[in-house]
Design a protein that fits this description.
Blueprint lengths: L2 H48 L114 E4 L7 H6 L3 E9 L5 E8 L5 H8 L3 E3 L1 E3 L2 E3 L1 E9 L5
Antiparallel strand pairs: 1-4, 2-3, 2-7, 5-6
Length: 249
């Protein structure tokens, strides 16, 4: 290396060192200044924070509410004190108040005990007694009335002088259900005609479930001129047949 180059290198190093020393000095000054400012103003800031006034308001305590008064006690139940029983005369079976010291005195049969006034007597009572003397004689039991005599059996056609003759005679219609099923039947009904010519009773002697009710409903509406025997109307039994046949074709 030439001498001139070495000299220039040393000069450059010397300038750099001076610049570094100046930078350090300026930095140290700034740090010192910051510390001084912190010490001076820090005490004031701390004083303001610690000495900050806070307004506190004291609220008076709420008055203690008095407990509600207890409900009034229920009214006392009135107990009936008058338990005396109405006077019913002398009590024969009242319990004794003292222990007897000997056997009870026997009454004089020649001097019977006088009866009390009407309406009084022994409260225990007795069967059949009236309080005015001895027991009352029971009333005689009346026999139930005799049942009415059963009506005389209805007369037959051969027993009457004039048989019953129908005045209104409606014929029953063919039941639709039996017609749909193609069922045929003969219904035999025994009916009783009373003295007024009305159908008293009707009963199916032979028939079919699809036809029986239809026939009975119609027969009960029939009316007759009553049968007679020696000129007097009498009850008469009749037998009527109802053939139900479907027409061919």
């Amino acid at each position: 290396m030439a001498l001139a180059d070495w000299s220039r290198a040393e000069e450059a190093d010397t300038g750099r060192a001076k610049r570094l020393a100046g930078s350090y000095a300026v930095a140290a000054g700034l740090v010192a200044a910051v510390l001084v400012v912190g010490v001076v103003f820090g005490g004031q800031i701390k004083k303001q924070v610690l000495e900050e006034e806070v307004e506190v308001k004291f609220v008076p305590p709420e008055p203690v509410k008095a407990a509600p008064p207890p409900p009034p006690p229920p009214p006392p139940v009135k107990v009936a004190t008058n338990t005396a029983r109405p006077k019913l005369g002398s009590v024969q079976n009242a319990p004794p108040t003292e222990i007897p010291k000997g056997p009870p005195a026997e009454g004089d049969p020649n001097r019977p005990k006088e009866e009390g006034p009407a309406g009084e007597g022994d409260p225990n009572g007795c069967a059949g007694c009236t309080g005015k003397g001895g027991p009352v004689a029971p009333k005689p039991i009346e026999a139930p009335p005799a049942p009415p005599a059963p009506p005389a059996p209805p007369m037959q056609v051969t027993e009457v002088s004039t048989p019953a003759v129908a005045l209104t005679k409606t014929m029953p219609a063919y039941p639709e259900e039996a017609r749909k099923q193609g069922i045929e039947a003969v219904v035999v009904v025994k009916l009783v005609v009373d003295e007024a010519g009305q159908v008293e009773s009707a009963k199916v002697m032979k028939g079919h479930p699809l036809f029986d009710e239809v026939v009975l409903a119609v027969v009960r509406t029939w009316t007759f001129q009553a049968a007679t025997l020696d000129g007097k109307p009498v009850r008469m039994a009749k037998v009527v047949k109802f053939p139900f046949r479907l027409k061919a074709g």
